[in-house]
Amino acid sequence: MADILLYNQGSSPFATLCRLVLAEKNLTFRKRDVSYYNWNQEHLEPFYAHVNPKMQIPAMTVTSESGDKTTLTDSRDILEYLENDLGSGRSLVDPKKKRETWAFVDSFYALKFMPLFMHNFRENQPAVLMMVKDGQEKTWAKLELLSKQYPELEQTYLDKREAMKKYTADFIDSADQVPENRKKAEDLLDEAEALLAGQPEGNQNRWLFGEYSVADCCMTQLVAMLRLLDIMSFDGRPNLKQVGGGLGPRLGFGNPVRLGVPSKPPSPSRPCLTRPPSFSFSPSFGRPRRRDQATRRQA
Predict the structure, then answer these.
(1) pTM of the complete model
(2) Given Cys at both, which of 67, 74, 281, 289 links 244, Cβ 3.0 to 4.6 Å?
(3) What's the pLDDT tens digit per position in 228-264?
(4) How far apart are the C-alpha atoms of 123 and 130, rounded to whole Å?
(5) Which residues contact 179 (CB under 8 A, 6 or more apart)?
């Protein structure tokens, strides 16, 4: 059996998507949490820069029984590898709906969420946007320092610094990409709503293409990300409103897990072993609850 190691960050939406696909495929995997926050930034450390020169989350390594290792540094590539190349786990693509399923996945990945997130801060919480920009600029300086400390990774760190500068210019300093990506989000939600509405009435599992697929994993994450900051309305989309409510938990796996809730970090030298859980969506994706809220809901 291949050894799967997912480099994860608990609230990363694309790492969450990979965890969901691994769970739905009923695959056992190891998980190494990598801190992405300004006060730690473990993803910038040399060990991870060697794994993923882009220093983004997630990444995944797959080591075969013969010792051959495959490294994947993009979540879209991870999904395709798990479905088409790994050779184990249950299929999440109906062969008869292969083209439509992967087309939906590609539409999901064509949508850039960051312009929408940052514009929400720009309109509603400008101080947060400035805090994000300040953190970016501090990271540029840190990357410059790391490039000098680790000569073998000098160009890798300088490339990352330039990528972060472009990120700041495109998403924080500018709102130019907001209209295009808002339209993509609306179009994708409308497509998902139409596909769900077209499924047979009375079918308990009303998924996009009949059977649960990798496209439904992307749809679930799409809804979670757009609900995160209430940046998109689900009015007039009754089927999508049920996502996170009437659809879970999924059957067939162990205890429920929730999207976007960071797990306790394992020891860096001892990644935790994760067996495939069942899935239920948390409407509070990415939002910490106050203790009194949690207590009231349990009462």
Answers:
(1) 0.82
(2) 281
(3) 878 888 888 988 887 754 344 443 333 334 333 333 3
(4) 12
(5) none
